[in-house]
Amino acid sequence: MPIDGIMLSAVCRELQTKIMHAKVEKINQPEKDELIFHLHCPENREKKNCRLLVSAGSSSPKVHLTEQNRENPAVAPNFCMLLRKHIAGSRIVEIEQPGLERVLMIMFEAKTEMYETVRRRLIIEILGRYSNVIFTDGEGQIYDSLRQVDFSASVGRSILPGLRYELPPAQDKRNLLAFETEDLLDFHSEQRLDHYLVSEFVGVSPLFARECSFLCTGRTDARLNELSEGEKENILAKLKGFAGKIEQGHFSPCLIKKETHTDFYCFPVLQYGSESALEKIDSPSEAIDLFYTERDKAEHIRRNSADVSKMLSTIAARIERKIAARKQDLADCEKAMKYKQYGDLILSNLYSIRLGAEMADVSDYSSGEEIRVSVPLDKALSPAQNAQRYYKRYKKARTAMEKLETEIPNAEREAAYIYSVLESLSFAENVADIAQIRKELADSGYSKHSVSKKQSKQKKDAPPKLSEFCSSGGLPIYLGRNHYQNDYLTTKFADKRDIWFHVKNYPGCHTVLKCGGEADDLSMTEAAVIAATFSKASAGQKVAVDYTQIKNVKKPNGAKAGMVVYDPYKTAYVVPNPELAERLRKK
Question: Which of 94, 368, 410, 480 could form an S-S bond across to 486 if both were Cys, CB 3.0 to 4.6 Å?
Fold first, then answer.
């Protein structure tokens, strides 16, 4: 769910406890709308080094402490460089939230080159598609922002360098923290209680409003004019109670797990009943981090691989059209095999064919019985010339057939290769994996090969990083996520006595159990499960996985990266298990 004013208040309390007086060690901007501050927190008893993530993404704006480490671009964006210039090495001296507005302000204090103390403020606005991160001086003059906004009716203000920062336009709503029981609600309204609370109070989200309605009435769609006297007293007391918890910082963050999706909040949510399960979380930041981590990671990979995915889909579609056209040509050539029969019939019946005829009704004795066959003729040619014309057409069709019988399997192999690359793209874990796929496509001639200056400085022979797991028996299991990694794992990294696994008849990752030829049954099974999980057959209930020693796996001469043949081998049937794979993954 989006972070409302109440959830942001919980985060603000946590940050005031954990990162106050923290020193800014490093600032990164892994995405255009995301910043990460690496902090040293001397007053934090739990952890001295923390990461503060700030995001103004329209789909998931947020601010919280995170355990995740993000990949950074080779060149830092201008906004990141500006922050490094002014607040790198500074200390956090204030963290505040105006009321229950979805705005968080962090004040930094630093020393200039002349040893003067100066203050800078970072303002994080969690406002949906209007979310922003604004950097000002201590007096509120804007240095810059992630999104510069000229004045418009939609936002009601300008956010440009040199201007003075103004809070978002005030809403005509009440402050829940200043709510008194004497401030009666409009119990005569026919409006739903949850809708009324959202429209009446600042920082209240639909989730919180529905929960209040459920706790006081037992239902989420109760209407104000239908409430009993007891329910009216309950709702007033409940709002007052929540206000007290927010002011005192008494939060109970949790994850709400449902069949279709997961939510998070700073208070327990009971409105879903038996359809959901509550998982208590230690801190608001941890709840947000757990909720967004996988989704943000998938979105990060999707953004960086979108061009490769589109290119591969275009290539695959082109090859499929080519295969269909060639198969149609082959069918046409097979029909043309009758031309030889026509030529033979004409020559065997030359004496009976009239010059200038358009059709010849001739006898065919090839089956042992006389069959009358009608052969079309070109009246401008003699019977012998018509026979030669049919022989030429037959020879042309035969040549085309021989070529098509080679072209079609080649095109089918190329299509299988492209689909396997497309499948490996779905297994990419980071930008480096995607870069390897780009390089593979460039080396194969499907795209232009462009290498950044940073990449050109790296060693060309640097081995790819493999995904590593550890079996329950303590044996290492390695996985290649693309063809380059598969090639390196199978032909260079693994020992000839190690066990190699691959899902049968489907694209998938090469998997190697490092065991020197001796492995326990559980480790073998777990390696097979990992191979099945990271394959196109991962949705199956029972997946066939071939396994053999590395010495039996060969790469044919001229084969593309990752393409191998193997014999002899055995086959195991396992059920893909992403949870097991994640548990065995080496952190």
Answer: 480
Grouping H, G, I as helix, E, B as strand and the rest as coil, residue 574 is strand
- Cα–Cα dist 218/225, whole Å: 16
Please answer whether residues 333 and 404 qualify as being in contact, where contact means their C-beta atoms are separated by less than 8 angstroms.
Answer: yes
The residues, any chain, with a CB within 8 Å of residue 45's CB and separated by 6 or more, are: none
Identity (one letter) of the amino acid at 533? T
Q: How many Cβ atoms sit within 10 Å of the Cβ of residue 96?
A: 12
If DSSP codes are grouped into helix, strand and coil, which group holds residue 326? Answer: helix
Three-state DSSP at 103 gives: strand
Report domain extents, the chain: 5-145, 176-286, 331-407, 467-584
- C-beta atoms surrounding 494 within 10 Å: 21
Report the predicted TM-score, pTM, of the whole model to 2 decimal places: 0.67
Mean pLDDT per 10-residue section of the chain, whose length is 587 residues = 88 94 94 93 84 90 88 87 94 94 94 87 92 94 92 73 90 83 77 92 92 91 89 89 92 84 87 86 91 78 86 92 92 85 88 88 78 89 92 92 91 90 86 86 78 48 85 94 92 94 92 90 95 89 93 89 90 93 87
